[in-house]
Design goal:
globular; about 450 residues; single chain; 19 helices; two-stranded antiparallel sheet; disordered C terminus; mainly alpha
Length: about 450
């Protein structure tokens, strides 16, 4: 039976355009249960692929500690999802439990899909090419969008309906669009941010971070033609800068340092690249009000912004320590306190965007680790961390760019919910599982050759 490697390419491209396509379908009249079915294509494809792959792979599968930790984490999530909410003190709805379980378990399913696929070096290179091409396409679309497509078009598109009516997000102050669609300067003259087909600057920035780390490893390892590499890296980095996501820029620098520590022969240029990323990002953050296209609030939006101005919590100054950054760290500290004082957790569906969508109290938000601590208790969060470390120990030495990408994502997970971005869940964890299988099948002397 042929392995469906093509599924990974579908995930890379399909999940990148998922939100835009769903929004346009909503605008075309495909709504409610019908759109729920259509938007579940990714879960259905993952489930079918798992069945197909493991029909043959189960006969030759060799267990590793990484697999045991993945299953242990998944088992805890399932148990906490089945426990009565009253027992743990949570208030999640049945819908919230389903959404939360999907949120927490997709990385496990994607990992085992990759374990069954066990990509060859040639197959991995083709997936890498798809990632780079997708990242470049996202950046180009996003840059054209913020300069050529007015915010009014997005207000009247299907995006507000997709997020609010279909997914249940109650976004404030931008006619139903996500608040981070723009950068609120605090002077009632917001700036556009690159959101691309994800309709999210954060999700777009995560893909750019992964693609840039891949591009860096490509330059070190393969010596590509500069006429191809330079525009690729430039477009990706421009896309990242215009997302105005400072945490992603820092994560990219961290990933480059990790890549340099693994690929010691390129340590100096990669450390220099990390320094350049931080310097250029800091300068660009200060210059952003002068280069980013400005937009305006509607009269209704402006009234709402003024009424809620007291909730800002700080001035939006355009630096690395403004209100947004302070809010992230406040939420992290609050989430840690919640998990420490309630280590048994509140049950699946009581944290983050899941709780927000289903109208229950958000016991912890933004940080991946505190959200898992609320959903599956301290045990679940610790098992996820242990699984992540075990995965890194295998992936980093042999596929350095992927290991560096995982490190960058885990760093981002401190102050944001990285598991809430399906592209990251399906693509990175599938590739991680595939690398684990491929490394396990190779003699020790040849394992270090499995790199890009």
């Amino acid at each position: 039976m042929r392995r469906p490697v093509w599924v990974l390419h579908v995930f890379v491209v399909g999940l990148a355009v998922h939100n835009l396509v769903m929004a346009e379908l909503w605008d075309a009249g495909v709504r409610g249960r019908a759109l729920d079915v259509v938007s579940s294509w990714k879960e259905a494809l993952l489930a079918v692929s798992l069945v197909v792959v493991w029909a043959g792979a189960r006969r030759t599968f060799v267990w590793r500690w990484c697999d045991v930790l993945a299953l242990s984490y998944g088992a805890v999530v399932v148990i906490w999802a089945l426990l009565p909410e009253s027992l743990l003190g949570g208030n999640a709805t049945h819908r919230g439990v389903v959404i939360g379980a999907r949120h927490d378990l997709v990385p496990v399913a994607a990992y085992f899909l990759g374990r069954g696929l066990a990509l060859s070096e040639a197959e991995l290179r083709r997936v890498c090419a798809t990632i780079l091409a997708t990242g470049v396409g996202l950046a180009i679309f996003g840059l054209v969008d913020i300069y050529a497509i007015p915010l009014s078009w997005w207000r009247h598109s299907g995006a507000p309906g997709w997020f609010h009516d279909q997914l249940g997000f109650d976004y404030f102050g931008l006619s139903g669009l996500p608040e981070n669609f723009i950068y609120n300067t605090g002077n009632e003259h917001p700036l556009r941010r690159l959101v691309s087909t994800f309709l999210s600057p954060l999700a777009s920035s995560y893909v750019f971070v992964v693609a840039l780390l891949l591009a860096a490893a490509w330059l070190v390892r393969r010596r590509p033609p500069l006429l191809l590499w330079v525009p690729t890296a430039t477009i990706l980095f421009a896309g990242l800068l215009w997302t105005h996501s400072r945490s992603s820029e820092v994560a990219l620098a961290v990933g480059l340092v990790v890549l340099g520590l693994v690929r010691r022969q390129a340590l100096v240029p990669l450390l220099a690249s990390a320094a350049v990323v931080l310097v250029v990002s800091a300068v660009f953050v200060k210059a952003y009000p002068h280069v980013a296209p400005s937009t305006t609030f509607t009269a209704a939006e402006l009234r709402a912004q003024r009424e809620h101005a007291h909730q800002t919590g700080g001035a939006a100054g355009g630096g690395f320590s403004d209100a947004s950054t302070s809010s992230h760290w406040r939420n992290l500290r609050s989430g840690v306190r919640t998990v420490v004082h309630h280590p048994q957790g509140y049950g699946v569906g009581n944290a983050g965007s899941t709780a927000l969508r289903t109208g229950v109290k958000v016991e912890a938000g933004e940080s991946t680790y505190t959200e898992l601590g609320v959903d599956a208790g301290l045990l679940g969060a610790l098992l996820f961390i242990a699984w992540s470390i075990a995965l890194l120990r295998i992936v980093l030495p042999c596929t350095a760019w992927l290991g560096a990408a995982f490190v960058a994502i885990f760093v981002l997970g401190l102050q944001t919910d990285v598991l809430g971005v399906p592209w990251i869940d399906y693509v990175l964890w599938s590739l991680g599982g595939a690398v684990v299988s491929s490394v396990a099948a190779r003699p020790f002397a040849t394992r270090l050759s499995y790199q890009e």
